[in-house]
């Protein structure tokens, strides 16, 4: 089983999320992207508590792809400080995780 599979969490404005998800997959930085269409985000920003309606992207990828994914998001994400959190995958379907590894650019 590939040991470097990760799930990346990215929040984005609802209108931008499908484009960001597609860019990640098209550029072979994620094998799969799920867009959870609406999450209610509550966070501290510039000293105040903020609330927003956003979408949540779940990007299945590899740890090696994280730097390039961060660069892609930096170029296309509308937020200056965007969420990119990578969670290690400790187990799962071996065939699915092999597909993830094979679907992400091995040159990363």
Fill in the keyword field for this structure:
108 residues; 3 helices; alpha+beta; 4 strands; 38% strand; 4-stranded antiparallel sheet
Would you give an account of this structure?
Helices cover 29% and strands 38% of the residues. The chain is built from 3 helices and 4 strands. The protein has helices at residues 17-26, 66-76, 94-103; strands spanning 5-12, 32-45, 48-62, 85-88. Strands 2-3-1-4 form a 4-stranded antiparallel β-sheet.
Beta-strand percent range? 35-45%
Oligomer, anyone?
single chain
- The count of β-strands is 4
* Poorly predicted parts: none
Task: Tell me the major beta sheet.
Answer: 4 strands, antiparallel
Helix content: 25-40%
Please, what is the average pLDDT? Answer: 95
Element string (H = helix, E = strand): EHEEHEH
Strand order of the largest sheet: 2-3-1-4
Cα distance, first to last residue? Answer: 19 Å
What is the overall silhouette? globular
Which structural class best describes the helix and strand composition? alpha+beta
Radius of gyration, CA atoms, in whole angstroms: 14 Å
Tally of separate helices: 3
Task: Give the helices and strands, then pairings.
Elements: E1 5-12, H1 17-26, E2 32-45, E3 48-62, H2 66-76, E4 85-88, H3 94-103
Antiparallel strand pairs: 1-3, 1-4, 2-3
Brief synopsis:
With 108 residues, this protein is α+β, with helices and mostly antiparallel strands.
């Amino acid at each position: 089983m590939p040991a470097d599979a990760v799930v990346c969490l990215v929040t984005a404005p609802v209108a931008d999320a499908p484009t960001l998800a597609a860019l990640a997959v098209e550029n072979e930085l994620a094998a799969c992207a799920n867009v959870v269409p609406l999450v209610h985000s509550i966070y501290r920003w510039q000293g105040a508590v903020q609330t927003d309606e956003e979408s949540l992207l779940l990007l299945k990828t590899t740890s090696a792809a994280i730097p390039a994914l961060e660069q892609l998001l930096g170029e296309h994400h509308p937020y200056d400080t965007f969420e990119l959190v990578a969670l290690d995958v400790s187990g799962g379907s071996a065939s699915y995780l092999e597909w993830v590894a094979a679907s992400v650019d091995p040159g990363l």
